[in-house]
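Risk register update: the risk of archive-format incompatibility is retired. Evidence:
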Amino acid sequence: MKLCVRISQNERGEFVAVCQSLPGCVSFGGTREQAEERLVEAIRGYIAAMNNFVPERLDREVVVDG
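Archived output:
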């Protein structure tokens, strides 16, 4: 499964990771890596809740703003 992930930094300096193809899948972190790791967990939870299925591997394309 391939998903597009967008990571940007907000005005408070936090990194925000969003998967726009999965509504509500957003995470925050002190670093880009932390935000992305948390988003991967959110994506897994989203997919599990929707399909009762968690893919073993998630491929993602990361887009970094700014």
